[in-house]
Amino acid sequence: MDDPEPADPEGVNSEAESELEQSLPLLPPEQTDSDNDSEMAEERTIAPIQFNGSANDDAEQWLKHFENYCAYKNYDEPKKLALCKILLTGNAAAWLDRYIGLLLVFA
C-alpha cells in the first residue's frame, strides 16, 4: 500500500498558519535581561531605605519619601502598610506594632 503524500508546505497549511497568526493578538515584546537590570537598578535608587527610628533619623523626611514612592508605584493602603512593616526596624518597628495594637483595641 502506498503512503499518502505529505502536505505541501507552501500550500494550504501555510495559508492557515498565516490566518492564525493574523488573528492572534499582538503581545508586547519580551523583556530582555538588560531591561530587568535597568528596572532593578531604578528600584534600588528610588526605593525607600529601612528606618530604625534612632535620634539621627529624620522621620518626617523618611515618611515623605515613603509616601512619594508608594504614590509612584500606585500602592493601595494594605500594600503600603505591608511595605512599611518591612522597612521599619528596631525602635520604629516596635512603635508601629504598639500603634497598630492600640488601633485594634480602640477600633
3D architecture notes:
The chain is mainly α and 107 residues long. The chain has a domain at 46-107. 64% of the residues lie in helices and 0% in strands. The chain is built from five helices and no strands. The chain has helices spanning 12-23, 33-46, 59-72, 77-87, 90-106. It is elongated, with a radius of gyration of 28 Å. The protein starts with 11 loop residues before the first helix and ends with a helix.
Number of DSSP-assigned strands: 0
3D shape: elongated
Helix content: 55-70%
Main sheet properties = none
Low-confidence stretches: none
The percent range for strand residues is under 5%
- Count helical runs: 5
Distance between the termini: 84 Å
- Spell the H/E element sequence: HHHHH
Gyration radius, in Å: 28 Å
Structural class, by secondary structure, is mainly alpha
Look at the structure and give the mean pLDDT: 80
Q: How are the secondary structure elements laid out?
A:
Layout: H1 12-23, H2 33-46, H3 59-72, H4 77-87, H5 90-106
Task: Give a short overview.
Helices cover 64% and strands 0% of the residues. With 107 residues, it is an all-alpha fold.
Which key terms come to mind for this protein?
mainly alpha, 5 helices
